[in-house]
Amino acid sequence: MLRLLKLFACAVFLVHHPHSAWAQSGFSVVKQADRLLISLENSAVAQYVFNDPKILRPYFSSLCLTSGLQVTRNHPPVEGKDATDHDAMHPGLWLGFGDINGQDYWRNKANMRHVRFLAEPDCQNDKLSFATQCELQTAKGKPQCRMTNRYTLTSRPEGWLLVWEATFHADFETVVLGDQEEMGLGARVATAITEKNGGRIVNSNGLYSAKQTWGQAADWCDYSGKIDGKPVGITLMASRSNFRESWWHNRDYGVFVANPFGRKAMNQGPLSEVTIDQGQSLTLRFGVLVHGKLDSDLATISQAFDRFYTQQ
After folding, report:
1. pLDDT score at 294
2. What is the predicted pLDDT for the residue at 288?
3. Does residue 312 surpass a pLDDT of 90?
4. 160: Cβ–Cβ under 8 A, 6 or more apart, which residues?
5. C-alpha span between 243 and 284 (Å, rounded)
6. pLDDT score of 1
7. Do the beta carbons of residue 236 and residue 258 sit within 8 Å?
8. What span, in angstroms and rounded, lies between the C-alpha atoms of 142 and 304?
9. Model confidence over 149-205: pLDDT tens digits?
10. Ordered structural domains, the chain, with CATH
């Protein structure tokens, strides 16, 4: 009976208002028509949006600690509080690609359309997992690639960790991923912790600042600062199991991107074209740590990366 009660408490409810969700420990999810509302220890920590008429790719917004402190920029940006640039390109946390077979899935010119949930949200043992299927369509609506995404969120002592595993399936034709700055896993941090407002960027090699870390290869980059006097931050991690290392497109106004494709764009060599032959696939694996640690605590972040990398 106790096991049945636990499973029932961990169910995902299809409702139209977040207050219809039941309170519980660990993760909980409210599924709406266009998004998942994700909570941890009864506190909202993220939204996963899979259907947005303005932003033509799935994304996470409103990433928070359980304390309520938000590490990503408000979405949409709040006039007078946030910089309002790129509101439809930088919604919080996303995978975007400025050039796949000449189509632009970063600037919302082509559609990374959500098709279905391959696995419905399942929460147990301080972990939440779900999986989706997308279809990458040209600007004219022609299918050119299938994409599967597997998400795992885990509670951590310093906050929580998202593992995002994305696989491109070249079902329809050969797929070529081009060379741009705007290719990969990106995040836009809260206005209060941008480098312009006193926040700090550090990478796994111990380099600080957007200027020093831009274009450099690294296992991870952390963007952190203080909100209401309390340390908060977000770390993006690129798995060593990826087909090659990631270079970093980091800016002092709050965006940072793990990019394994933009070799020439990042001043690291000749033009890159990554080809997936028809019938083949390519998998990328990234981690995202939402934490309450200052970036000077490099040991904590390095340990978190090691746990992420070994968590298969």
Report:
1. 67
2. 98
3. no
4. 40, 45, 153, 154, 289, 290
5. 8
6. 42
7. yes
8. 40
9. 999 999 998 999 999 999 999 999 999 999 999 999 999 999 999 999 999 999 999
10. 89-310 (2.70.98)
- Going from the C-alpha of 228 to that of each of 67, 92, 119, 189, 232, the distances in angstroms are 12, 20, 38, 15, 10
Q: How far apart are CA 194 and CA 251, in angstroms?
A: 9
Give residue-wise pLDDT tens across range 26-46.
Answer: 999 999 999 999 999 999 999
Residue with tokens 């931050």: 233
Q: Which two tokens stand for residue 18?
A: 């977040």
Residue 4, both tokens: 């049945």
